[in-house]
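Re: folding output
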Amino acid sequence: MFAGDADIERAVAELGRALPERLRPLAQIAYNYRWAWSAEGDATFRSIDADCWARTGANPRRLLTEVGRRQLEQADGDAALVARVERLASELHDDRRRPWREGAIGPQHPVAFCCAEFGVHGSLPIYSGGLGILAGDILKEASDLGLPMVGVGLMYRTGYFHQRIDVTGFQHEYWLDADPERLPCVKVTGADGRPLTVTVPVDDEDVVVQVWRVDVGRVPLYLLDSDRPENSPVGRWITSRLYESNRAIRLAQYAVLGVGGVRALRAMGIRPGLYHLNEGHPALGVFELLAQERAARPAGDEAAAWQRVREQVVFTTHTPVAAGNETYARDEILAMLGRIADLAGDRERFLSIGRIDPDQRDQPSGMTALALRASRHANGVSRRHGQVARGMWQPLFQGRAAEDVPIDHVTNGVHVPTWLQGPMRTLLDRHLGPGWLARADDAGTWAPVNDIPAGELWAARCAARRRLVGMITSRATGDRLRRGEPLDYASAGGGGFDEGRLTIGFARRLATYKRLHLVALRPERAIALVGGERPVQIVFAGKAHPADNDAKEVVRRLFALKGAPGVAGRAAFLEDYDMALAGQLVAGCDVWVNLPRPPLEASGTSGMKSVLGGGLQLSVLDGWWAEAYDGSNGWAIDGSVDADHPAQDWRDADAMFELIERQVVPMFHERDADGIPQRWVAMLRRSLVTHGPRFCATRMLREYADRIYRAG
């Protein structure tokens, strides 16, 4: 049905020939990330060889090609494992046979979902944070719902950076090669058997781009790659790093993603019914669409051609933060994109479409403004973000009041089968009935949570915390030893965390507006929390962009507290935050803290994931929490905007500590005769029932499909 089908089949057959007969279905499973959100997927591969599974980064293709023959033969003789393999294979087979949704968006004209990053699984390292994780969740949910979709992104050869922290708390970055030949993907070939390629004009070079295909359930993800021998060293480097610091290279990436993406889809015979631009990075593709419109029709009305382009495009903006809405001077743009500007027919017109005021020639141009002008529909990612975006971009719509700016909102949601893990998934599967995940957006689906005995809910939470503490004690010690900490401090990371202790998590991308520094703003209160009569334990994780020195300094300020009594064994910063670590943290933490500076948190999906594991939220009323909090399902800090940032920081830090000290800790320790914190469990129930249906990807994607994709 999609380009690359034959290439996938050949790769599956080749891998299958190397496996014992009863394990051969694993070849098909390994080449489709559908296994990653199956309840038995990870455990099936892990049971073949747990050490090899960990060493290969949970990459099934590498596992099956690198594990020893003896382990494969033992697995082939394990009846229980073979039965798991058969169930997984049957699940994949049945899933692929389900019908697609029909309509204006159908199998012959799918949605082309275009994004700079995709967080499908940790073994595919082409993501950095929330934008990519959301994009991966959207592809997974499209597969589950049968919504025809293809993903379009870039194959970053070295992906996003890996992180190491030194003894002072300073972040160091390094990159590892992610060889596509060892990933569960295939190079798309043409009828002649050679790699399918397109060219993209960048600077004075026609950059040759090839295409890799990754299967995400029934949705193919096409990743463009400029590492071709025909290209110059600069041309080959374009798709090397995600969010490359070099501004010229970033512009080249936008050209490959946007223009190259449209050209690649056409070369593969895919005719999208709609292009969904997820952030502004792919926006240059609208000029290739314009060129196609001109080529398909006699010369005529330019305005009509642009209108036909707009009818094909919708746009989601994800952040009000300046770094996510970059602008470039005219010389920067024309140096790299001058020949793409010619697709617009007029270089000045090309530049003007991306300006706030098209008539101001000295203004820089940006991809967000371009995407807003070139799309039929635009939306933010929460109710509050929609309001913020309308005010922020009102200057683009002269003559309209902010409330009339045509930017809607679709609040984000998370893919429940991916992020609901461990004991809580087992519990909910038992109580919510067969097939409940397909109905996750129905409030009635979650109603039986109210009848789950408090003892069972609390037992699931304690089991999840126990798993998390086991991981922390191992990983924290390793992190500390690697950075050369004293042995007593390193050992404290392995022995201080307690499986029965209230565990607070703060893990996310370390942008300064996320305000991790509030924890260290009142050091005496932070130290008292971890060292008091009822101590808590806190786990931190996150990466600062390599060029964001202010964010790096935040981690250094946290590390300044590590020598205080009790801190070594009850607080840990876990290095190299990624999808796998995020999944463990959101599943195991009792409380998830989020402290963005209002109104800069567009959505904030990590808290939605924490909810699924039974975690309770303590957050500033911004992003999703501004519409999720009802007074009974978590804790809230004022989300008012305050221009006096230092005063706001002190006030919010005090508010956070007040809530933890006076409400969170007492409620956690208030137990009945059976040792169950009844009020805590009641809030946990309320959190699941109110948040589960509203903040799942099922609701989100149905909303896109029914309200935005269908509109014309």
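--- second protein (sequence, then structure) ---
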Amino acid sequence: MKKIQNLLSIPKDTPSLKTTALLMALAILFGIALRLIWVYQFSDAAEFHHNDQLMINTNDGYFWAEGARDILENPEFVDELSPVNRSVPVITAFLAKAFPFISFETLILYMPTVFGPLIAIPIVLIGRALGHTWMGFGAGALATIAWSYYNRTMTGYYDDDLLQITLPLLALWALIWGVRQHENRYLIAVSFATIASLWYYPGGYSLHFALAFMLLLYTLIFDRKNHFNYKLFGFALLATAAIPIWLNLSLSLAALAFFMLLREKADRFIWIFVALAVAVLAYSGALHPIISQLNAYVFRPEVEVDTAQLQFFHVVQTVREAGAIPFDVFAGRISGHWVSFLLACVGTAMLMARHPVMLLSLPFVGLGFLAYGVPGLIPPAGLRFTIYAVPVLALGLFYLIFWVGSKIGDPKIRIGLVALAGAAVLAPNIHHIWHYQVPTVFNSHEVNALEDLKKQITPRHDYTLTWWDYGYPIRYYTKSKVLIDGGKHAGADNFPVSFALSTPNHLAAANMARLAVEYTERDFKARREGERRGGSIVAQMMEDYGFSDSNRFIEAIGQASFRPPEPTRDIYLYLPYRMADIYQTVELFSNLDLMTGRHGPQSFFAHSRFAGEDGRYIQMQNGMAIDKQSGDLLLGEQQVPIRYFITAGYRNDGRYHTQPQQLNRGGQVSIIFMQHLNAFFIADQRTFNSPYVQLFALENYDADLFEPVLSSPLVKIYRLKR
């Protein structure tokens, strides 16, 4: 083992603390500078600006922005789901008060720009702990702009990814230093870093539990007689317990005082302390979120079954971030390119062989590799997990670079080679950043529509019904409630909204919308009063209306004799053009038999832009075409008879009009050409009659059920009248 370590060793460097701080600052400034490329690229795009500032580019950002705004405005009067007690809004509100001359929009836009590159700090510190500070600098610079890490911390990506990796890395650094130095101060450093990390991101229990487990495993293999490591393990476990922060800090400080006062005499109590830490961890329920995450991302059930045995479609099946990804994308997201990824794997293995303490970082690597999964054993958890492997493999890649450099005798050639290799591994990531031109969540036209809606609603009282992708922005801009959003979109939650947007029976859609809102409010009230009813709100509806079969219940709400609950608030349907991109996913959640979980026949829906026209054919951008002579839709080699061709658009007076033509009485699809968007909707009969298509594309609505509130090219809003 010693021979291998000697073979893999590289010269140590121990620059001064001032130099180390300067290297951190340079890596951070490098990450900030590259994050400003996106600002430069979109600075002149008026449609991406609101209130004289670029808008953010992640839906979840509006969730945190809502919480921060509520803290600043009136923390005592907020929606039940507003995150006023979460870390990101608390930090944002603090910064907004500390820097009142910075607008709120500017603050949330640029927080990722500054916070994201802070990942360089623990990486440089880890490099210094191993005696390789310059290696840490190179790895820190790479990690700040690595493909996947950049994507989730770029300018405008205002989300809890800001410090989600940085704080656990600080805990890893404290563990490494503790193992190497055996000093009590690192006990409290581990505790503080872990507690801060879990306060910031409560979803990190799995990672911190794994770090503690790796410390124990490392000790048992390499240093089993070292009592300090068991002590460190106990502190890591105790800090991971899901208990109030004040109690966690108090217990950690009390334990530290005990070990510092008794010194060597305290060693006899180490196993009692570890046992107590395990007991506190288990009793606190910290293992529950770990099991939940394994169930969601590893075992991944296809259906959700509630207490009434209703079977809903599981949302994780439709989340792109939790889907399978090709190997080259997986590798590129971690290291920029599959070649540099493979080299990074080699370098990481070398680093761990030379410095076995780096085995403590395996939980980061494991979570990152979980994105790709293990064929035949573990399904891929999706691209979002790749960011965890970024810092460790960045260290491994630069370890390999410095190791190769160490074999060159001439200092000038060595430095030049290391610099050239470093630039080479940075290059594909910089290339990605330049071409990653992600738009803002909403454009200014859509935000203006929401601000018009805000003038008509009762804040914190009325509901806006739409798909969960738009839930957070709607809550932020209108202060209305929503049924589903980025954090509340389980299959049971999605079913009523999906049904209301896609069922051909508009009366059933209206009744389901009213039922969903009123039962959601009842559920909120029951939670506040400590009287939680079991099962989904659909199960509660069925129970109250006397149905045991969901199919009969669905049939009943579409009949004129059905009486929905008395309205207690207004409900608005928000129907954006952009929903056409995901309509088939929207419909998926209600196009199934809740008694069996089996899906119904898949509907047909597509939309495309006008691409050109010749004497016989109208061409679309997605390769489809309309044969004007036969009245057929051409899908490759397939010819599908068109039932209706409808032209829709706005007159000069601003009024919406439609002009239908029947082409084939028995046609299988109907086509709507929206002149103002230069776009087509192509739908089978079921989808054509859905509320989304009828109300958005045709503005054809039942006046007894819906009242138009806003009509614009990109957004239509209706008020429910029952």
